[in-house]
Fold Tryptophan-rich sensory protein.
Amino acid sequence: MNRTVIYLLFIIGVVGIGSLVGLFTPTGDWYQGLQKPSFNPPGWIFGPVWTVLYILIGIAGARTWIEARNSARMKTWFVQMVLNFLWSPAFFGLESPLLALIVIVPMLVSIIVFIRQAWQPDRVSALCFLPYAAWVSFATVLNLSILLLN
């Protein structure tokens, strides 16, 4: 398969599935009623941030698929993606900051593991995951803070 097609499939797939998850798990009245920490960002920022992150995740996934399809690194990429797509249904869909925290912690660990696994063989993929790791680290603190405040 052509490399360009692989990149497009990964990027469109990740952005598309991420968008669908967001569409089917809106924040709703429950979230609006929660106490949030002072560092909670405005709601409008999440869409643009996640779109950029999903593009970077897709790029890293495509690069890994092309270079090391059957590797532990590719498996780690898929694990973090599944956890990523489970977080919103856990937090917003089931209205459970605790369950979401149980999802986001291993998600963050798998992101860090992917960075470590990719660092030597594919620095570009590892670098694509650095902003993702930073955002999910922040989201983990935010998730924990919401759990503790409510």
Q: What stands out?
A: The helical segments are 3-24, 28-32, 46-68, 72-93, 97-119, 123-149. The two ends are 50 Å apart (CA to CA). The first helix runs from residue 3 to 24. The chain has a mean pLDDT of 97.
